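We treat protein structure as text, and this decision shapes the records that our systems exchange. The remainder of this section carries one protein's record, kept here as part of the documentation:
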Amino acid sequence: MTITRGSRTAAVRGAAVALLLGALTTAACPTAPPATAVPARGAAAALSCALQTAPGEPVVFRPAVTGRMRQVSATGTLLLDRCTSPDGSQHGVRSGRLVLSGSAMANCLTTDRIEGSGTITWYHGWAQRGYRAGVSHLRPAARGSGYTPADAFLSGGVVSGRMAHRRVRGWAVPTTDVTGCAIRGLRAVAGRGNISFR
C-alpha cells in the first residue's frame, strides 16, 4: 500500500493525539464504573469544558517518538476552562487541572497498549482559581469509537471522586507541528479540544 504525504501527515497527527489523550483518559484505579450508573445516551452533559495543554508546558515524551516502535512514556498537564453544566448538576464548576502520566508502545504512525493515570482537580473559579471543587479520577473504556485514534481514547468513565460513574467523551487536535516526527523525532506535543462528562 502506498502512503501519500497527506495520509502520512494525518497518521502522524493522529498518533500524536493518541499518545496525548491515551494518558489523559487513563486512571490508576482498575475498577470500571458500574454499567447501571451510566446515564442514558440522550442525556445532557453534566459538564463540558474546553481543554488545552498548559501554555509552555506540552506533554513530554521520553524517549522521543520516532519511526521505530518502542515503549514511550508521557507526562503533562492539561487545563480545562470555560466549563458549563448543561444539565445543571455541576453548577459552579468553572475550570480544572488534569495532571497525567502514561506510557505506550508507539511510533510516528501508531500507538498500542496505552496505560497511565490521570487526576482532575476542579475549581469554582475561572482559570484554575478560587476554591477547589473536588477531584475526579478517570479510566478509559475497554473499547472506544470514533474517526481518529484520539476519539478511541477520549472515552471512558469517572471511576471515583466528583462525577463518579459519569462517562467521558471528547476530542482534541495537536497544535504542535508533528510532520517531522520520523526524521527528527517528537519529544513533546501541545493540543487543544473539548471534553464532556455525561
User: Anything to note?
Assistant: The two ends are 40 Å apart (CA to CA). The mean pLDDT is 76. The CA atoms of residues 58 and 190 lie 5 Å apart. The first helix runs from residue 5 to 24.
